[in-house]
């Protein structure tokens, strides 16, 4: 579905959102108190009109402390009966946050069950930026759909088709380099990682905008990760359809930038290295030494650390244009989840001003991120004895940092570089965030760009 707000009309029913303990709206009359309404999170009190119909409703938001603990509480409103509702927000609630919650709550993944959202619709809350919020929701819906689609339908061919469809939608230029063409184009590590799969590896290159500063976004597109010859155990393989979450988030970000018109003020390039890390006689092996596009050699000490290999070639390609800002998005390390959990992705940036802008924008956009260091003291860990770099340092410590340090070697040449180690998955149901694929970082990046790009 395409997320959107309903047109306001005289038939739209009032929907009051209420914090626990706050006075209830006088227009609701005595019914909420008489029915025991206490404004618990997600509690709904339907207000009768005295003639067998509805006069409105009140949605409970819980204690005000919930505002800082759990975002998008207004998404509970999608449990209301069908019809058009006019949200009336409590004092102090951010109208953009409320508007986004109302749209995100309508998301359903319907490709295989067909259970599309058919519930309540909402007018845009007063004071909200409808254009911005529509774009944020549309980008998020695209990202979720791509991640939720299993690898039998979202392999390299499927991801290319989705990217091509988005390019047509927003008017972006689109090129793709596939299979052995990658070797001719000097993208050898993308080819090495994906050559064992039935669907060929590829590099997708999309461009939008022809004036202004240069932004290059690189998204990891491993459509399924078996671990390669260093095969994952079955329990670790269950969520590996989400290993293209970086590419999915990059595509969601491109849709947001296009829909808001932000892409008209910059030159956006999206690079998606796409592969399936499979097992066959053609698989790359532990102990292999690969030569990258940049000329750096990489010793493969674990074939399950493949994402950084395909990103490395794409980052090197992107850096050759010396963009003002280059960003990588990748479901890269379990170490990031151990450190910060599934909801708070780390980001890495050497530029303090850019890092501060992104951190502040993430909080404002309700898309949290946490800065982690490119710690120079760990550089030696990614420098093995027989090659320039090691794709999987031994020891098991600081795995997210060493992965970021590895990628930074290939991003040299960009004006500024930011790396996000995202999870791309919502493990438990939360308001506006059903269990399954989820975008992380795109709203934060979009909010930060005006403060980072020249």
Number of helices: 14
- How is the CATH topology of the largest domain named? Aminopeptidase
Q: Care to count the β-strands?
A: 19
Give the termini separation.
36 Å
CATH architecture of the largest domain: 3-Layer(aba) Sandwich
Uncertain spans, ≥5 residues at pLDDT below 50?
A: none
Number of domains: 2
- Name the structural class: alpha/beta
Q: What integer is the average pLDDT?
A: 97
Based on CA atoms alone, the radius of gyration comes out at 23 Å
* CATH class category name of the largest domain: Alpha Beta
Strand content: 15-25%
Using the alpha-carbon principal axes, give the shape: elongated
InterPro entries: Leucine_aapep/pepB, Macro_dom-like, Peptidase_M17_C, Peptidase_M17_N_1
Keywords: Aminopeptidase, Hydrolase, Manganese, Protease
Protein name: Leucyl aminopeptidase family protein
Domain Cytosol aminopeptidase: 302-309
Q: Keywords, please?
A:
454 residues, alpha/beta, Leucine Aminopeptidase, subunit E, domain 1, Aminopeptidase, 2 domains, nine-stranded mixed β-sheet, five-stranded mixed β-sheet, 19 strands, 20% strand, elongated, Peptidase_M17_C
